[in-house]
Design goal:
single chain, about 675 residues, mainly alpha, Serine Threonine Protein Phosphatase 5, Tetratricopeptide repeat, 4 domains, five-stranded mixed β-sheet, 23 helices, 5 strands, about 70% helix, rod-shaped
Amino acid sequence: MYKNILVIVGILIFSSCEKIEIKKTNQKADSIKLYLKNANDIKTPFEIRKRNNEKALNIVSKQSNDTLNRFYYFKIANRYYNIGELEKFKKISLKLIRNSVSANDSVHLAKSYTFIADYYSYKFVSDSAYLYYYKSGKIYSLLKDNIKTAETILNKAVCQLNEKDYVGSEKSIFKALKLLNIKNKKLNYQSYNLLGIIYNELSEFDKSIEYHNKALELLKSENSEENRRLSLISLNNIGLIYQNKKDYKQSILYFQKALEEKQQLKGDLFLKAALNLNLGYSQFKLNNLSELPRLFDKQLKSFQQLNSISGIINCKLNLTEYYTFKKDKEKAFSFANSSYQLAKTKNLPKDILLSLKQLSIVNPKKIADYSSEYIKISDSLQLAERKMRNKLARIEFETEELTVEKKDLVIKQRNIIFIAFGIVFLLSIAFLIRFQIMKNRTLLLKQEQQKANEEVYQLLLNQQNKIESVRQLEKKRIAQELHDGILGKLFGTRMNLGILNNEKDDNQVKKRMFYIEELKGIEQEIREISHDLSSEKTAVFNNFVAMVSQFIENQKSVCSAEIKFELDDNINWNQQENMLKINFYRILQECFQNINKHANATQVFVTFEKSETNIILNIQDNGIGFNYFKKKKGIGLRNMIARTEDSKGTMSVDTNPGKGTTLNFEMPQL
């Protein structure tokens, strides 16, 4: 009856916990290593091992999430698993998943998935275990790590085997074997061992023995402690196959051969108890009862000591068969019922079915009840197994489908981003083009304005030139008239008077001389006037000065304030650019417009001065002033700022309410 108790898979959950060389050492690291070493010492009491692991966890949990930190977390999780603290093992494994994702660490993420899968595998939650093994395998596959990928596939095969999906499990194993090379004997052993178990369940006993023998052959290449233990497991499994074939003599040979390795079995009480129990059952079937029931009782105590529920149940079922054979119905019923109650308490449906089968034999009066319950549980179990097999088959498909959907979603999101980027790019281009058009238009308007200003200024200059030309012509005409007309006549008169002066009458002589002298004075005076009119000696020595002077004169007639105007004669206006003179003129116009409208001033001072590099226009009034920083800048003020900047100059405003205003404009001269 014990044929299912020790069909050992041989895949060691933490066989992938490779050593990592840590070169950096410090006091905390040394403490962690010591705590982890003590936590993993099987000779140390359970509580001390647990306490050491928690001390290590306390240090590691305060460290930053780096490779070394995750390495220690894996060690701590491993220790929790080894001491049976499965919930803490799960908690650390989930934390490792989060930390690995956060650090974008694919290797540790795959390993974390394997750990959490091991948790669910131990709990016989096959679908969750299968899912996490699948996730782990996908990462290892992307990393092109064939060994790790094969390990996860074999672990999935175990999940399928547990749910009686023998075909699916077989396919998974052969898929793993394709990834493995001959040199990797450990995983090849596990593959052959699993195939042996599958074919045993399918009653293909010869094929099962063939693969178990292949597994044994691989172990002979290295005489390690692990290989010796695995050899004993394979011998046990082959013995169970012969039990299923009802070749009990052959099965005893394999069990006895394994039990001969006493030194190896000394440290493995579970394996020793299983071999003895299986040996006892084969002897019972051959009617060799010399060591029974003592052999069964002894193994029952061993399994109770190990707290192995499946071992205890199978021992009791074997004892049920033995006492049924001995016609001791009371003891037979006691062991069968005890097995049934334990299986029911632990919710082990397969063991419940075996117990019900024995109860129906021991207590035939209630066979109808037992059969009814057996059928109900069996149907429910088969349905659950079928659902689970379907679920395992769907996991990869649905996960792949989700992956494809995720990829499609990523592609869609990427397309949306590209389209959005394209739209933004086109809008940006359109904006830049529009901005450039506006900029060009503004520049064109500015150029046109400058051209218009220059034309206005040129018109003013032309007007002033015409005025000046007419003035000069008029002056020349007057000078010519004075010189050719009046002066000629006066000269003739003077000559005549000189002739008359020959008369000897003293009074007449004196009188004539007086007039002659007076005429000389008039002549000289007219000559000077003629000379001055014909020269360029005028107050208006160039057109800009004339324009400004004329503007100031015009303002004196319209402005209520007294205006004082000073202009530095050292400024050579003819050398300055027209734009500079236009800007000065427009600024002057704007300032007087503001003074006339807002200032209420009684005095205005306007000066043009020359510094080493600049021409300075200063306009000061004693009006009401204003708060320059609070007052919103109007068009006039903005225009003055713009014209100053246009001539690369500076503008300063000194004003306060009630204290007048001083405007200062400095512009570079040529």
